[in-house]
Amino acid sequence: MLAKKANSIMNISRIINCVTHVIFDMDGLLLDTEKIYKHGISTVLGKYGCEYPDDVKAQVLGSQPPDMMRIIFNNTKIGENSGKTHDEIYKEIVDTYTPLMPTAEWMPGALNLVHHLHKHSIPFAIATSSARESFELKTTHHKEKLKLFHHIVLGSADPEVKAGKPAPDIFLVAAKRFDEVPEPRKCLVFEDAPNGVKGAKAADMSCVMVPDSTIPKHSTELADVVIPSLEHFEPEVFGLPPFEKNGNEV
Question: pTM here?
Answer without folding.
Answer: 0.86
